[in-house]
Amino acid sequence: MPTISMFYGIIIRMYYSPGEHPPPHFHAYYAEYKAIVDIEKCEITSGNLPKKQSRLVLAWAELHKDELLADWKLLMNGEEPFKISPIR
Fold first, then answer.
1. Tens digits of residue pLDDT in 2-44
2. Upper half-sphere CA count for residue 78 (Cβ side, 13 Å)
3. What's residue 77's pLDDT?
4. What's the gap between Cα 72 and its chain centre?
5. Are the beta carbons of 46 and 52 closer than 8 angstroms?
6. DSSP 24
7. Helices 51-63, 65-76: inter-axial angle, 10-degree rounding
């Protein structure tokens, strides 16, 4: 699963698997926490993150929604995704 971005101890990844289940989403990891985030709705659909990290991830997703959807399409076609800028 390629790492798309990293910031403030948070790792953002997407599965490199054509046919990954919809809706378009990514996986966010922070310490022992993990969550799945729906890209189009910019909301956590599974798992959890601490409040601060959750807000950071959702704000980042909102800012990079088009890039995340483009990466999703690449991965669903078996292509390598591009990195997305972290929050600074």
1. 899 999 999 999 987 665 677 899 999 999 999 999 999 999 9
2. 0
3. 85
4. 9
5. no
6. P
7. 80
Token couple for 57:
């991830």
46 pLDDT more than 90 = yes
| Structure-block tokens of residue 35 | 């969550």
Please list, in sequence order, all residues whose beta carbon lies within 8 angstroms of the beta carbon of residue 67, skipping any fewer than 6 positions away.
82, 84
DSSP state at residue 87: P
Give the bridge partners for 29, in sequence order.
11, 34
Tell me the domain boundaries of the chain. 3-76
Is the pLDDT at 76 greater than 90? The verdict is: no
The three-class DSSP label of residue 86 is coil
Kindly list the strands in the beta sheet with 10-13, ordered across the sheet, starting from the edge strand earlier in the chain: 3-7, 10-13, 25-30, 33-38, 43-48
